[in-house]
């Protein structure tokens, strides 16, 4: 009998003549060095023990295995390597069965593929999501998966990183059986007994024949290569995945494995891997705001939304999608009707696309009610206000909420820049007020800035984070200031772009450079999409308080004065064909820019794309650092998550703060000081950057401090 040591991350127990090897490394059974080591020992023991006829590999707790231990990437590798463990399992002379529940992802699925047979409970999920971390399946996955399910299906799994259910996995041939119950151990043992009774051999995935049709395999590889070149042109690992699958087709299994290893190590060393892994952990860290540890969230079962405009309707959809009943308040019946129609339009589109049935749509809309009277909110646990951005209007709404809402209701504002402390101070219960800053379209965009006014009680903030989880949003805690984290930093790098435009770069060159960096759009395209009138209104509002010594570029104002507000008016910085969304450069805009340069007495100069990006990023990083320095963001990683999820910052670069560390904070500071020679008022180095550079420290060193 093989002894069990309770502290082991691999537990072994003999059931008759079947050795159950259980991975027990909470929370997700990541395949850490210790797990790999003990797995190796377990299989050595199984091989040597004459009382063992077969091995059943399962996971303890909530999963089979969530993959390689992501925390080990970037550190010195510790043996044994996961590919070696997988090879050892596949080479085992006795049948090895993997019984899967929860998730089998990445290295977890590769481990299962190295087993000889696979059974899974019906709720299990499978995937090879390494691409989302800048990697490729590096434990034989690129060699075994195509041999088992064919090049096309394997490439689809590896390039999309998506998870599939047990039914699909079974249809593909990734698993052999779906268990009849949820008891993974009992069903796994029964399946193993059946295999033993049938004298099933140790069947090895390396010998599987799904690549036998070379013509269709080659076609699938070429199609994937073309697709990757088009859709993921900024990314490093997708092409490496295609290369690895090509190796699976053209090389022996062992040579293919060696090739996979080389490609994997190239990905592991890439800055993209570092950026994507940073984003993975940062997204999880932001959820743990201090208030969520201190206080319990209030119960939210009934929600009110004030305003049925684009934002209010989008918020209502986000809430309905999370299964919550929503009461929409508007000032009159016509506006209420319009708000309801905006909500319905979202679901109509889903029905058109075949992603929702008419019955499902009716069920969702049955949870939406509307009223022109605030009194309809007397039962609401949470009210989110999304009315016109004007302090007087907001205060009037909050006075009504103060009057009608029950005690303990959370009162939230969706303002993007107004002083929430002032809103909170205007009512009798400031502790219940919080900012919930959604991004448009509110039912799509993942970011939710949770803005914390000074008097907010901890359980209100905990409630906001709990709501974000229900809405499947990524919450970032922000302090009160003009623009909070995101819009405050945006104002600065947009100003840097405006300065460059006035100094000689065309908006089209700037947008292209920003896209080439990895953003989906440049700042002038964003302005055209959002509507130039929005920024114009903000600029007018700030005009009175703007430092007259500060440089102010008037080009956007000249464009707005002509009624050119972007896509919705057919022209802005770009010209749009009737109803079109892709703009063309506009010679008249270029003429306006020339006139403005002349008016400002500027002789235009040329900019390289590299200089454009250095200035753009230096502005973003500097203000991001200020936001951390002032405690508006808890840590640099909160700024990163804000920009990745709310502003299209390329995820593979991790976020602006991570990017600053990647290029070197001292280099960024040197750039800022260089740019300051021409405009010292705008380019003031953030005290945080100066301090970190003096100490030789990184922004990342501040990520642990929340
Ligand atoms: C790989 O396998 C490479 C191989 O091909 C080659 C190797 C040679 N490692 O998300 P949650 C932590 S690459 C370490 O909140 P959920 C996570 O940080 C890997 N830690 O829960 C969190 O910690 P904390 C391929 C991990 O239920 C806690 O677990 N695999 C790992 O919403 C709970 O996570 C993947 O890409 C890990 N692999 O979702 C899968 N996974 O509590 C990545 C999770 O301290 N993981 N943690 O914040 C996931 O997709 C989700 O975490 C999962 C659970 C679906 C598993």
From TrEMBL:
<feature type="domain" description="3-hydroxyacyl-CoA dehydrogenase C-terminal">
    <location>
        <begin position="483"/>
        <end position="576"/>
    </location>
</feature>
<comment type="similarity">
    <text>In the N-terminal section; belongs to the enoyl-CoA hydratase/isomerase family.</text>
</comment>
<dbReference type="Pfam" id="PF00725">
    <property type="entry name" value="3HCDH"/>
</dbReference>
<dbReference type="InterPro" id="IPR001753">
    <property type="entry name" value="Enoyl-CoA_hydra/iso"/>
</dbReference>
<feature type="domain" description="3-hydroxyacyl-CoA dehydrogenase NAD binding">
    <location>
        <begin position="302"/>
        <end position="478"/>
    </location>
</feature>
<dbReference type="Pfam" id="PF00378">
    <property type="entry name" value="ECH_1"/>
</dbReference>
<keyword id="KW-0511">Multifunctional enzyme</keyword>
<dbReference type="GO" id="GO:0006635">
    <property type="term" value="P:fatty acid beta-oxidation"/>
</dbReference>
<dbReference type="InterPro" id="IPR006176">
    <property type="entry name" value="3-OHacyl-CoA_DH_NAD-bd"/>
</dbReference>
<dbReference type="Pfam" id="PF02737">
    <property type="entry name" value="3HCDH_N"/>
</dbReference>
<keyword id="KW-0443">Lipid metabolism</keyword>
<feature type="domain" description="3-hydroxyacyl-CoA dehydrogenase C-terminal">
    <location>
        <begin position="613"/>
        <end position="696"/>
    </location>
</feature>
<comment type="pathway">
    <text>Lipid metabolism; fatty acid beta-oxidation.</text>
</comment>
<dbReference type="InterPro" id="IPR008927">
    <property type="entry name" value="6-PGluconate_DH-like_C_sf"/>
</dbReference>
<dbReference type="GO" id="GO:0016853">
    <property type="term" value="F:isomerase activity"/>
</dbReference>
<keyword id="KW-0576">Peroxisome</keyword>
<dbReference type="InterPro" id="IPR018376">
    <property type="entry name" value="Enoyl-CoA_hyd/isom_CS"/>
</dbReference>
<protein>
    <submittedName>
        <fullName>3-hydroxyacyl-CoA dehydrogenase</fullName>
    </submittedName>
</protein>
<dbReference type="InterPro" id="IPR006108">
    <property type="entry name" value="3HC_DH_C"/>
</dbReference>
<keyword id="KW-0276">Fatty acid metabolism</keyword>
<dbReference type="InterPro" id="IPR029045">
    <property type="entry name" value="ClpP/crotonase-like_dom_sf"/>
</dbReference>
<comment type="similarity">
    <text>Belongs to the enoyl-CoA hydratase/isomerase family.</text>
</comment>
<dbReference type="GO" id="GO:0003857">
    <property type="term" value="F:(3S)-3-hydroxyacyl-CoA dehydrogenase (NAD+) activity"/>
</dbReference>
<keyword id="KW-0560">Oxidoreductase</keyword>
<keyword id="KW-0442">Lipid degradation</keyword>
<keyword id="KW-0456">Lyase</keyword>
<dbReference type="GO" id="GO:0070403">
    <property type="term" value="F:NAD+ binding"/>
</dbReference>
<keyword id="KW-0520">NAD</keyword>
<keyword id="KW-0413">Isomerase</keyword>
<dbReference type="InterPro" id="IPR036291">
    <property type="entry name" value="NAD(P)-bd_dom_sf"/>
</dbReference>
<dbReference type="GO" id="GO:0004300">
    <property type="term" value="F:enoyl-CoA hydratase activity"/>
</dbReference>
């Amino acid at each position: 009998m093989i002894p069990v040591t309770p502290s082991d991350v691999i537990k072994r127990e003999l059931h008759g003549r079947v050795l159950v090897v259980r991975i027990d490394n909470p929370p997700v059974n990541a395949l850490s060095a210790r797990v790999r080591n003990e797995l190796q020992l377990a299989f050595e023991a199984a091989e040597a023990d004459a009382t063992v006829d077969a091995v059943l590999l399962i996971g303890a707790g909530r999963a089979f295995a969530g993959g390689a231990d992501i925390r080990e990437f970037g550190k010195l590798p510790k043996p044994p390597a996961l590919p070696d463990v997988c090879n050892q399992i596949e080479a085992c002379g006795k049948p090895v069965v993997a019984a899967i529940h929860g998730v089998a992802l990445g290295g977890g699925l590769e481990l299962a593929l190295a087993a000889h047979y696979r059974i899974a409970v019906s709720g299990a999920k499978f995937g090879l999501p390494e691409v989302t971390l800048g990697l490729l399946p590096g434990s034989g996955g690129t060699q075994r998966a195509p041999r088992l399910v064919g090049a096309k299906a394997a490439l689809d799994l590896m390039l999309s990183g998506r998870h599939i259910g047990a039914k699909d996995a079974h249809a593909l041939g990734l698993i052999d059986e779906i268990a009849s119950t949820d008891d993974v151990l009992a069903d796994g043992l029964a399946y193993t007994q059946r295999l033993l009774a049938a004298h099933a051999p140790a069947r090895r995935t390396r010998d599987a024949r799904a690549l036998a049709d070379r013509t269709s395999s080659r076609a699938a590889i070429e199609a994937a290569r073309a697709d990757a070149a088009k859709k993921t042109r900024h990314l490093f690992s997708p092409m490496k995945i295609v290369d690895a699958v090509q190796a699976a087709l053209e090389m022996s299994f062992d040579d293919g494995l060696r090739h996979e290893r080389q490609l994997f190590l190239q990905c592991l060393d890439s800055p993209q891997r570092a950026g994507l892994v940073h984003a993975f952990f940062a997204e999880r860290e932001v959820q743990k705001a201090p208030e969520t540890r201190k206080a319990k969230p209030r119960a939210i079962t009934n929600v009110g939304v004030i305003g049925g405009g684009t934002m209010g309707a989008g918020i209502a959809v986000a809430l309905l999608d999370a299964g919550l009943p929503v009461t929409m308040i508007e000032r009159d019946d016509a506006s209420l009707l319009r708000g309801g129609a905006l909500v319905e339009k979202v679901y109509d589109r889903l029905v058109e696309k075949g992603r929702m049935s008419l019955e499902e749509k009716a069920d969702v809309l049955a949870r939406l009610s509307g009223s022109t009277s605030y009194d309809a909110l007397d039962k609401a646990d949470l009210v989110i206000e999304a009315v016109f951005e004007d302090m007087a209007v907001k205060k009037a709404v909050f006075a009504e909420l103060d009057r009608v809402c029950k005690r303990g209701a959370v009162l939230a504002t969706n303002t993007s820049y107004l002083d929430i402390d002032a809103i909170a101070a205007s009512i009798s219960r400031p502790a219940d007020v919080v900012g919930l800053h959604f991004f448009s379209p509110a039912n799509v965009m993942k970011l939710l800035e949770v803005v914390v006014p000074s008097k907010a009680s901890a359980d209100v903030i905990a409630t906001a984070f709990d709501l974000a989880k229900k809405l499947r949003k990524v919450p970032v805690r922000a302090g009160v200031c003009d623009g909070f984290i995101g819009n405050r930093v945006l104002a600065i790098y947009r100003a840097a772009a405006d300065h460059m435009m006035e100094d000689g770069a065309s908006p089209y060159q700037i947008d292209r450079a920003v896209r080439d960096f990895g953003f989906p759009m440049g700042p002038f395209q964003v302005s055209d999409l959002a509507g130039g009138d929005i920024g114009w209104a903000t600029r007018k509002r700030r005009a009175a308080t703007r430092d007259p010594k500060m440089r102010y570029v008037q080009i956007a104002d000249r464009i707005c004065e002509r009624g050119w507000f972007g896509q919705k008016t057919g022209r802005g910085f770009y010209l749009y064909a009737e109803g079109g969304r892709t703009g063309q450069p506009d010679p008249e805009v270029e003429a306006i820019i020339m006139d403005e340069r002349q008016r400002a007495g500027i002789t235009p100069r040329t900019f390289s794309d590299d200089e454009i990006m250095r200035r753009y990023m230096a502005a973003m990083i500097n203000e991001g650092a200020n936001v951390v320095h002032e405690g508006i963001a808890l840590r640099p990683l909160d700024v990163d998550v804000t920009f990745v999820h709310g502003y299209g910052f390329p995820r593979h670069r991790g976020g602006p703060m991570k990017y600053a560390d990647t290029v070197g904070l001292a280099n960024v500071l040197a750039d800022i000081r260089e740019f300051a020679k021409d405009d010292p008022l705008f380019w003031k180095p953030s005290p945080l950057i100066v301090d970190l550079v003096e100490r030789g420290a990184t922004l990342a060193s501040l990520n642990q401090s929340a």
